[in-house]
Each structure stands twice: as structure tokens, then as C-alpha cells.
DNA sequence: GCTACAGTACTCGGATAGATCATGTCCGAGTGGCCAAGG
DNA sequence: CCTTGGCCACTCGGACATGATCTATCCGAGTACTGTAGC
């Protein structure tokens, strides 16, 4: 069970976008350069975020990606779900159905106690992620490094490097 | 992020093993037949459980697998870790290290707030899994289906089917 | 000087290869049981 | 009848194919800017 590398990139990139002027768009290539990431592949992840309604994209010169809604309304769960997909990590394949006994019309995804336990654990994980917003994360970073917003904004404003 | 199919098989198989006579071993093929699973592949998963010290294995006739310790001392976390490996789902690759700024001797796996948030969520998941023992699960099943232990034991005792 | 227009550079978006891991299968090493032969 | 030795069947364990998914890359469609020509 390995989470995609793109999740880390996506969260950090979204965080950087929170520090830009409202309405300002940044090309994927520039976001990638910030962390020296492969541009085309990061672009792919950003597309997924755009499809999920987290980012908004504009093509052409002066185009790029920007947050589609307020950082207060974007949770880590949203970002993870956009990259990894909405399905759960533990997939109950209902092995009980193939075991001995009667199985007519029984939904083992709900009835099976093993499935319930696994689901409960995963729910705790999701709840924790859903409790963290991009705004909260941004504020925490700013408390630790008050210069981060200005520095990041300056870096993206600069033409090179 | 998809969990291995083997996790579901492993938990159900361990559960079945809790209902056997103490010290009685069951071949992988027989455990697989219970849920109509591919025997050789289930065998592979059971080997992982044996390496993790959850099951004990004996080769030769009358051999097979049995629980290596009491069901009270086996958690779902143990089983999942045995199959999926001990590493975390979210791997912090420390992208911050490649970003602008100073990075000498900084452990971003601990310092990065993104990494911390993801880690906290995953910890909630692990804690939930670690709170569920095989014994607890077994008792829940027995409360719902009091005949389960006897039926399961009888099925494994029967020579065919 | 102002406007219209064509060319150009830039960006996303999806389609296309390669690498890595999960899935599934197979055969060999070792062990215990069984059977027969001998005492 | 009891013991002993060899044979055989059974089981795990790891090595070997196969397929799906993650990773990485490339090129085309569309857009906004820019520079120029005409009025």
C-alpha cells in the first residue's frame, strides 16, 4: 500500500498557490521548478486537481493554475482523493460469499465484521485528513516562518530560477 | 493507494485459525479451499505472516499453519503490517530540500508540516487497527453467530469439500 | 495616431512509452507417516 | 509380536512468469500577446 508521490507534490504546490495574489495563475512548469520536479508529470497531477474542482486552469500566455476556491474550503482529504481516487484502500471483495453457508442477498461489505473494522480505521484516517484545511496548514507555516509568504511570492514573481 | 487483496484473506484465515484446537495445524490449501482462493498465492501471504511471527508453520504430513501466539496478542495492525510491509503509505520525499532556502542538516520528514499532518492521519489509522485484536473480532463474530466456531471446526475437520 | 489582423509564443490537456509492484504459478527441500522385512 | 529401516506422500518455502498501476514524456488544440500594415 503505497501512496502516489504526486500527493506530496500536490499539497506543497497548493500551499504555494495560497501565497499568490488572488486570481494570479502560475504555469505548471514554474510550480515544478520550485521543487525541481518533472514538469510534465506535475502537470498531470495538477490536471487531476483541476478535474476535482480544487484548482482552476487557464491556457495560453499568462495562463496556468490557481486555487479554485478559498483555502479554508480545501482539505487535505480533498487533495488526496483527487490524486489517489475516491475508492478506499481496503477493498472488501466479500470472500465470505464464497465460504460455506447461505449468502443470498447479503451485502458482506456492510455485514462482514472484518470489513467493518477495516472501514472504521480508514474512516479515522479520512476524518483526520478532512480536519486539516489548506488555510490551517498555511497559517501554521506562517507562524513558524513569517517570511515564507513574501519569499514565495517573490520567487514566483521573479523571471528566472 | 490500493491495499493488497491478501490482507482480507489473511485476516479471515487467521480468524478461522482461532477456532481450531490449540496446536492443530491447517495446510494452506485447505485454508484456501474454505473461501475458494488460489492456494499457492494464499500460501505466499501465510508465509509473510509466519515471517512476522503471527503464524507458525510446520512442513510435511499433518503440517500446515497455526497461530503462533494467543489471539489476544494479535492485532489487525500486526496482520496488515505483515502483508503490506512496515513502511508508511505516505512517503515524505522531502521536496522542501530541493526548494529555495537553506537545508543543511534539516530532517524534513520531521520538520515539514505537510509531512506531520499526513503522518498524524496515518497514525490515527494505525491506532485504530492496533486497537482491534483477533480475539475481539472472534468474540464479536461468535456473539452474532454462536454456531460459527463449531461449524468452522467441523468444516476443517471434514476430509473433503 | 489609431485600428485591425496575422503571426507567434505560451499553456493546458490528453495520448503515448517505460518502470515498478501486486498477482498468480511452479517446482524443489525437508519432514513425518506407513509398510514391509527381519529378529 | 516388536523393532527397524526404507519408501512415499505431503507441506512449506522460495524462485519464476504475468498483468496492472504508477511514473515519466511528448505532441496537438486553443489562447493571449505582439508587431505590423493600412486607414
TrEMBL record, chains A, B:
GO function terms (MF aspect): DNA-binding transcription factor activity
InterPro entries assigned: TR_Rrf2-type_CS, Tscrpt_reg_Rrf2, WH-like_DNA-bd_sf, WH_DNA-bd_sf
NCBIfam families referenced in this protein's UniProt entry, alphabetically: rrf2_super
Originating organism: Actinomadura syzygii
Domain of life from the UniProt record: Bacteria
Ranges in coiled-coil conformation: none
Taxonomic lineage from the root: Bacteria, Bacillati, Actinomycetota, Actinomycetes, Streptosporangiales
A GO CC term assigned to this protein in UniProt: cytosol
Name listed for the protein in its UniProt record: Rrf2 family transcriptional regulator
SUPFAM superfamilies: Winged helix' DNA-binding domain
Alphabetized PROSITE patterns for the sequence: HTH_RRF2_1, HTH_RRF2_2
